[in-house]
Amino acid sequence: MLRLVRHGLRWRRPYSSIAASDIDHFRTILPPHAILSTLSPSTLNPSELDPYNNDWMGKYRGRATTVLKPKTTQQVSDIVRWCASRDIPIVPQGGNTGLVGGSVPLRDELVISLANMNSVRSFDPVSGILVADAGCILQSLTDYVAPHNHIMPIDLGAKGSCHIGGNVATNAGGLRLLRYGSLHGSVLGLEVVLPDGTILDQLTTLRKDNTGYDLKQLFIGAEGTLGIITAVSILTPPSPQASNNVILALPHFDNVQPLYRAVKRQLSEILSAFEYIDRTAYDLAVKHGQGRALSDEEVDGAACFVLVETSGGRREHDEEKLTDLLSTLRSSPSLWALREGVTEAVSKEGKAYKYDISIPLASFKTVVDTTREHLRSKGLLGEHAVKHVMGYGHVGDGNLHLNIVAAAYTQEIQDALEPFVYELVGKSLVQTWHQKLNTYVRCAASYRGSVSAEHGIGAMKTHALHYSKDDVSIEWMKKIKALFDPKGIMNPGKVLE
Ligand code: FAD
Ligand code: MLT
Ligand code: ZN
């Protein structure tokens, strides 16, 4: 059945819905247990597809009738080739922990889950290069390399569920980016199934390879719109011999910037993370049992907190450096649990509008306060509407997570927040009255930041891309998409409208 799908501005292409005859074909590729479908003949309870149709936040909901769980790259290729011939749209899905609605269908696209592709292909303890299937869970890879005294170059709160393929597809940042840089640097190679089913083998383990265009970079952060990543080759750093962390309660936000400068200067090479949590985010994490709370005395008068981590080669040397810097030293793994637990605490408290933005550190607090006042002026602050407006994030990366926690997702709150937040963050030309010239002038009013520092665009921000990318850039992104995926079957409605 061919139908014209319309979804606002998003979908204009003719796509096919999956039919029983498609399931018959998938049965020639996959064993029965790897096909979950409500299409007849099926005994599957439709609710069994809920985990694949609903995103982590409970904000986006798809209507997929079928989920396929291939085990090999060849199976992925065979499935995609069939879908291309039938114009069946596909959503690649990893651990489904994405925060921008990219990992679930918008309608009834086929979900290809990478969960069964979960083997380590090789690990070289000398170079630290790991080659793994895309569906390996990040924590399991961390556990795999640990006995060899290596760590993964990426760490994030979702590590127990997210896949390395999903991390690469979103170019996830996380808690170690300050130290180990982005995945654009640590990913050495990829194996990708292209939208026509071709297998692109760029799974090199070379540190250096300047033989023409570096195609793999296109798939890092493409959010499944250019192909399905089936394997990743990644450089894992040696485990630090000593790691320390301290949490500091600060009386004013104004203390953060000078402290960051001092910490960078004094800790230099051993500084591995510098994370920010405002008081609202801290209180919420404690309320929902994330990590160990500080004592009442310690938090008395605190406006915000920073978590500083050092990772180095010699414990005595690092502790000495830290002690030199800080008069009170509190070290405990539960400090990280508190920071990492903010996301979960927010989701337990209510429905989160999550803005993941790059702006100058000095404006972190202003953006949170301005948003709160804006919502107040619209009469939207209160237990039954917006309960909390808060900020936390990665100071070292200039990345603030502005979270608005509401009792429910409503159109009214959504309209109050957008485009307000995007105009504040991204480029926006506004008309202002110029007294001397006695006329309106157009001027840049925002921070020229990024509307997505690390979570991606997904379905949430396709309409907001232009706040951070100019027309020429977007035009070339569309050309690249059309080149790889002329039928537009790969994760439609995501990243690009
Ligand atoms: P999914 O959610 O399944 O998919 C995400 C996107 O990638 C989708 O567009 C999907 O289509 C695509 N995709 C997935 N797998 C593939 C594949 N094999 N090939 C092609 N495309 C694919 N993000 C950060 O950057 N930093 C953080 O610190 C951070 N912390 C988080 C903490 C929590 C508690 C949660 C819930 C999320 C957090 N995130 C963070 C969001 C982050 O994007 C994801 O956790 C992670 O990178 C996504 O991996 P996943 O396997 O769950 O991918
Ligand atoms: C984080 O830094 O905790 C993650 O990016 C998740 C979030 O934004 O909540
Ligand atoms: Zn983050």
Automatic annotation (TrEMBL):
<dbReference type="GO" id="GO:0005739">
    <property type="term" value="C:mitochondrion"/>
</dbReference>
<feature type="domain" description="FAD-binding PCMH-type">
    <location>
        <begin position="60"/>
        <end position="239"/>
    </location>
</feature>
<keyword id="KW-0285">Flavoprotein</keyword>
<dbReference type="Pfam" id="PF01565">
    <property type="entry name" value="FAD_binding_4"/>
</dbReference>
<dbReference type="InterPro" id="IPR036318">
    <property type="entry name" value="FAD-bd_PCMH-like_sf"/>
</dbReference>
<dbReference type="InterPro" id="IPR016166">
    <property type="entry name" value="FAD-bd_PCMH"/>
</dbReference>
<dbReference type="InterPro" id="IPR051264">
    <property type="entry name" value="FAD-oxidored/transferase_4"/>
</dbReference>
<dbReference type="GO" id="GO:0071949">
    <property type="term" value="F:FAD binding"/>
</dbReference>
<dbReference type="InterPro" id="IPR016164">
    <property type="entry name" value="FAD-linked_Oxase-like_C"/>
</dbReference>
<dbReference type="GO" id="GO:0004458">
    <property type="term" value="F:D-lactate dehydrogenase (cytochrome) activity"/>
</dbReference>
<dbReference type="InterPro" id="IPR016171">
    <property type="entry name" value="Vanillyl_alc_oxidase_C-sub2"/>
</dbReference>
<dbReference type="InterPro" id="IPR004113">
    <property type="entry name" value="FAD-bd_oxidored_4_C"/>
</dbReference>
<dbReference type="InterPro" id="IPR016167">
    <property type="entry name" value="FAD-bd_PCMH_sub1"/>
</dbReference>
<comment type="similarity">
    <text>Belongs to the FAD-binding oxidoreductase/transferase type 4 family.</text>
</comment>
<dbReference type="Pfam" id="PF02913">
    <property type="entry name" value="FAD-oxidase_C"/>
</dbReference>
<dbReference type="InterPro" id="IPR016169">
    <property type="entry name" value="FAD-bd_PCMH_sub2"/>
</dbReference>
<protein>
    <submittedName>
        <fullName>Actin interacting protein 2</fullName>
    </submittedName>
</protein>
<keyword id="KW-0274">FAD</keyword>
<keyword id="KW-0560">Oxidoreductase</keyword>
<dbReference type="InterPro" id="IPR006094">
    <property type="entry name" value="Oxid_FAD_bind_N"/>
</dbReference>
